Amino acid sequence: MDDTLEKKSDSAMVDPPPASLVEEEFAVRLIDFDDLLRNNDLETAALRLSEGAFEIADFMRKDTIDRFIDFVFFKVSTGNVDIPSMAYPTKRMLDRELEGKIAELINNHLYPEIIFRLLKFFTRNVHDSDTNLYIANLISSEDIIKSIYDTYVLFKKDIYMSDRDRRTLNVKRIQQYSPRSENKLSSPLDAAARLKYILEFFLFKYDVSGIYTKEDLRMWRPGEPAPA
After folding, report:
1. How far apart are CA 177 and CA 95, in angstroms?
2. How far does CA 223 lie from the centroid of its chain?
3. DSSP state of 58
4. d(CA 150, CA 146)
5. pLDDT band at residue 224 using 50, 70 and 90 as cut-offs
6. CA-based Rg of the chain, rounded to a whole angstrom?
7. Which position among 26, 61, 160, 176 has the lowest Cβ density within 10 Å, counted as fewest Cβ atoms?
């Protein structure tokens, strides 16, 4: 199976963080992603991003790849509207050369490190979930698409758990929220629905029949208990 898919034709903190963490996060914020991509080959850029991801000691803090995704989201959000279908409105970057470099980084050079960060971004986007397509539109890697689908299946199974804390635990892990955080932001039903929209977009855009079908994306089937 090819690595990429071809398009179809038609509480504020009580105590301040340790100084080392402040210095690490400040260093991450200083990265000029635009300059990094324009003035370096993609292998060098990927290496810098990957190395920076291991420099943050606290997993609750954003690393360089997290912030790279934030940068990509900003660049797409300020771009042109792109509506391949009224059901899937998205956007594209103004700079198509930069967009191509970013897509190649995401799909080829930052795998597998970027997968968890993408899932975290998608599942945390609770209030404006349609904009997840801004990032999803750059994804063509079968491995990344399969990871999103596998996570969707996991969340769908969690919907039926009766214990609220257990039901939300996997979503919180992907979101990198504390197990003690509020459950309302980590509903597996809501998270599965957000991923389902992305997967339906991939189904529209690519031939993903080797990974899943439209039937596989059903949230409920006759004979199953209704989601809680």
Report:
1. 34
2. 32
3. -
4. 6
5. low
6. 18
7. 26
Q: How many residues does the chain have?
A: 228
Q: Give dist(CA 46, CA 44) in Å, integer.
A: 5
Distance of CA 22 to the CA centre of its chain: 25
Cβ–Cβ < 8 Å for 89, 133 = yes
How many angstroms separate the CA atoms of 203 and 207, rounded? 6
Alpha helices, DSSP H, located in the chain? 19-29, 33-38, 42-53, 64-77, 96-104, 113-124, 132-136, 142-158, 164-175, 188-205
- Nearest residue to 27 (alpha-carbon basis) of 6, 3, 48: 48
Residue 129 scores a pLDDT above 50: yes
| Angle, helices 188-205/113-124, rounded to nearest 10 degrees | 120
With a CB cutoff of 8 Å and minimum separation 6, the contacts of 26 are: none
| Tens of pLDDT, residues 151-182 | 999 999 999 899 999 999 999 999 999 999 99
Q: Which residue in 36, 28, 37 sits closest to 98, CA to CA?
A: 37
Which amino acid type is present at position 113? Answer: E
Range 70-92 burial, b when 16+ CB lie within 10 A, else e: ebbbebbeebeeeeeeeebebbb
CB atoms within 10 A of CB 47: 13
Structure tokens at 203: 């189904």
- Model pTM? 0.84
